[in-house]
Amino acid sequence: MWKVIVCDDEQECRDSVLDMLDRYEKESGESFDVSVCTSGEELLKRFDKTVDILLLDIQMKTLSGMNAARALRQKGSDVQIIFITAMSEYAIEGYEVHAFGFLKKPVHYRQLAWQLEDVIEAIKKKRGRSIVVQSGDKIKAFKSSEIAWAEVLGHDVKLHLAGGGEESCTTPLAKLEKDLAGSGFFRVHKSFLINMDHVRSINQASVSMVDGGELPLSKHRKQDFIYAFAEHKGLA
């Protein structure tokens, strides 16, 4: 089941999108848990990290959808945002918040269905890969999306998990890097492998992570990392 928020201050548009989501469920076999917000302020109050897809009107009173999206990104959310707008010139601005797509008002079902099909496929691809690590006398499996970053500590590797918590393993960092190739990970330092979905900012000689971690950034890897990060976010 995909958790979806529809945020629009126009009731007619909200009702129309809700009807289309219901139709898409019936036609695709996908399942949605849908919530509704009528303002950017309400969205920021009610939003949590379990939301998968956000259908967000750009032009709302007081707090615009674009500014609400900026606030969510600043908090570290990687929710997939599909903007709804009557004005196409916002598309360039949407790159700033890594918008997945845009729907122009009035929203037509086929356009929404195509966007939903693409965004669900993107989420499945990002979350789908699993890796297996050796932890003591146990073998444990993790989805790539569960790992925020990994670091070498002595002969072990510590996994810092996206939901909080840590897990030590004896699987070498080089093997983790190989197993996670193509899943949005980058080795920013010989002892640190990071999930680029959990980067808050790139600094002169470090990378700030959403969970508060401040990790060293090798000067020899910095340019490659900046390019890989931009490509990962769809900016290159």
SS class:
alpha/beta
Beta-strand portion reads: 25-35%
Average of per-residue pLDDT values: 90
User: N-to-C terminal Cα separation, in Å?
Assistant: 32 Å
Architecture (CATH level 2) name of the largest domain: 3-Layer(aba) Sandwich
Largest β sheet strand count, sense and barrel closure = 5 strands, parallel
**Secondary-structure element order, N to C:** EHEHEHEHEHEEEEEHEEEEEH
By DSSP, the count of extended strands is: 15
Q: What strand order characterises the main sheet?
A: 2-1-3-4-5
Which range best describes the helical content: under 10%, 10-25%, 25-40%, 40-55%, 55-70% or over 70%? 25-40%
Return the domain count. 2
CATH fold label of the largest domain: Rossmann fold
Low-confidence segments, ≥5 residues, pLDDT <50?
none
How many separate helices? 7
Rg measurement, Å: 19 Å
Shape: elongated
CATH class bucket of the largest domain: Alpha Beta
